[in-house]
Structures
1.
Amino acid sequence: MQIFLNSKNLYIKMKNLFITILVLSSILSLRTKAGNAGLFYLNAQQIEKEFKQLTELENYLVFHHASLNALIQTHNPILNKTGLENSNQTVPLRMMFEYKDVDWGSFAWGFCCWPVGCLIVPFNKNKDDNEKLSFFYGMLSFYTISTIYQISVLIKAGNSISTY
Amino acid sequence: MAFFKKKTILLFSFLLFVVSFVFSQNYFRFEADYSIKEKSTVDDPMLNMGRLYFDLHNRSIVYDITFPEHEIIVMNDTAIYKIRNNQVTEVITAPNFIDFSIFSLILNGQLSYFGLKNTIYKLTNVEKDNGMVITTWEPPEKFKDIKGKMLLSQIDKKLNGLISFDNEDNIISKQFFKDYQVINGLEIPTTITQFLYTGMDEKIKLTTYKNIKINNMQNEEYYNYSIPDY
């Protein structure tokens, strides 16, 4: 009777152990599978949203056969929307500052009164790159002309001293 | 009688050879309009557009870039050449990546496993979940200090995604291959989304291909592009 009870207990213990192992391994395998499948989840809508403006620009370029240079020259608002206006891609083109790009109001601030103009043009977030560059060209022009004038005054003064 | 039997077998074999030779497709050229859009947590957004030409025999990829600026980029087994106004402006030495370019994999019919079957990586696990077959590829023991595993998923036997890990099991890149089109019998993904994780920076790159041509015998000047002297 005792032997029978022992063997029955052993059978129950083995059965419990087997069920526990089975449940644990199933949970483990399910967890592994779910983890790896989850890694391959791609939120296509989010990606579409992320690239919406660049896609708009792409479609515009395909339709109009436009170049970046042409977009910058015409101050096309589509560039502002995409953020390409300030992108590294546009730096070499932005550096091509031409005579027609000069903003004469900003130039005048730089030329006539740069200490006040500093507050109005370069430190003003609403001013674009052309206006800021125009201000600095104005300032540069003022110093160049004043330096030439001072040198000429000094030369004249030197000449008048030597004649005495 | 035995002579006739032999003759019949020989004739049948010959016919089989001829038929298989005639009907087997040999893909060697890939051409498409492409656009690459890039966004990053650190850098400015980027858009690059143009048309690309790949010749399997010449082993070179030629990008005729139209945006942001007109430029030609030639990639071959040893270097990347930047050409502007028919003058080489930059040469960058690059390792041989032509064999693992998506164009080479497509033309060779190895895209479904991203060519991993022909590398040092070994298939270590296969699992099925959510309509995907996910395979795990691991480098040999001696390379485990420098290379991590790769997870590759397929849907309907087509490459769906590829995840690369570093040697510490951190994800370094994810690529998704979507919007397959069948062109000349080849299944080609026309949208590739790539996530790159480098340090604090997360970069998303969206590449699309349109107007794809396979084995085009025109545009020889691009397929056999001669790099100007520099």
2.
Amino acid sequence: MSDANLPEVATGPFVYDYKAAPNRQITMPKSVPLPGFRAYVAEQEALVIAEEAKWQKQLADFEVAKAKAEAEGKDVPKAPVKAAVKKNDTDMVFPAPTEAKDADLLRLVEMLGEKVEEVFEQAGELTCQVGKDHILEALQLCRKDSQLKFEMLADQTGTHYPAATGFAFSVVYHLTSISRKKRLRLRILVPEGFEPESATQVYPSANWMEREIWDMLGIRFANHPDMVRILCPEDWEGHALRKDYPVVGWGQRDIDFREDRGGMLNRIAMEKAGQLGINLKRPKAE
Amino acid sequence: MFKNEEMEINLGPQHPSTHGVLRVKLRLDGETIKHCRPMIGYLHRGVEKICENKTYFQGQVWTDRMDYCSAIANNLGWAEANEKLFGITVPRRAQYIRTMLNEFNRLASHLVWLATHALDIGAMTVFLYTFREREDILDINEAFCGSRLTTTALRIGGLREDLPPGFEKLVHKFLAKFPDCLEEYENLLSENRIWKKRTVGVAKLNAEDAIALGVTGPMLRAAGVPYDIRKAFPYAAYAEMDFEIPTRTEADTYARYLVRLAEMRQSARIIQQCMDGMPEGPVMAKIPKILKAEVNEVYHATEAPKGEIGYYLVGEKGSPNPYRFHVRAPGFINLQSLPKMVEGSLLADIVAAIGTLDIVLGEIDR
């Protein structure tokens, strides 16, 4: 390999550019993938309308082209053909959401009334979305009601939806009924800063799960006995599972070891720029 | 002269009996534990965040490395959650092979548990016996997929390849000798006076508390609740298998030991049935090279050796990456019950309690 082919090597100390670091690039999600029956139906209807509009445009275009060709005495173009429905040659069938028919969901609607925002079934799972102020009531009902009897809170977690309007997070509760062999998902949508009631008041197992949600997503829960971080240290900045948090931690992995073996030049440049990284601060002498 | 004050000590994070890097903050009155607070996170790698930034297929290697003692059980939960998300039908032969590998994995995990648990309490010999059989299981893993511990054996939609030639011989050889090996462990421990002194009545957790704290797996079954996801919500080929759910009612460390030993016998039974009834056919479903989801969310739970492992996935339309990837780690939830089990008991019992929880910190911290 001749010298001309080698890439140019920068001379002098590496200048740390906070924004250009390749691992730092965050692509914020544009859509709000919140499953639901109503949203699905609306999307399907919009698709049909779009499809029809496209077909009408094709027909109109053809008419124009035909008239033009006839006027000029050329060959008439072929008439458009409706595209055939794509054949599914895989073993995949998308489990579309369906209307709620399960007795548990109907019972929830019956007992909670207007506090239920949406109920549907998808992929064999039951989902019930309740108002964010009524989650404690819904959990108590699921625990105590003789027809529901969901004894165990198997899992609780959240999702960040930065592109959504009106809410920023969803919190989901996965309940299990051991005696009836059923599962149920409760869901609430909460805006930034809202503190939902803690599920520990009904299910003690929510303790660590809610601490994890606070740690990872930054949703605090009201009336939780011990609302502190669980996986990250107490002085950690930011919440890692938010979509605006980079995959690679601040101040790490930006060192280009090809030019700077050991990373010292880089580290010095970063320190001078005041960007040692939020989680790599020097401990303060006390 | 006598001081009557409470003392605070740290058990871990660098302590051999904590199975990794678990720190337990204890407040003692003499040798009695007054307060116990487990502190975790020393092994936090951000598996969920990483998997959200990788494609659906690439997440698999991270599930291997959560609970590294039961990689196939983690893979199975992950693969089935993805299959549920996309609506993929898996061929029957693949289901059988998966079931068999999963049960082998359960054996391997329980053998490691027995070895380390006994070692913590002071029974050194069992360690040498159980690791001998575990070695055979790792050889079987190696024969199937080339790796021993972090196997990445399964794929979304089935398996990477079919069973290798000569695989049956390996399995039959193992199954022929395994019942005798189990008897060996029982001879060493079950009626051992020291073992019983250290385990009977230690770290009790009754059914009511266990359910309230979300405890699953052998811990729950030793408290008398016959909840096993393989029976309650059958997956893979478990619906076609004939096996029992061993339960005890004593809810102590000794009962959990007996439940896990009985479970190993049932696992051997399931493996035998898989080998006998192995159907012919393909092992991989027809799926595209790149999976792009529709808007959907699933929570799929399977019975890992340590309890219920659940995957919560949210799919974004047109994206090859999961929008949300969450793991309900059994160890994470089960560890919550540690204060309930040890508060009021002696300091030495916490070692037995951590052992009986069967925790792997790689899974708890993720």
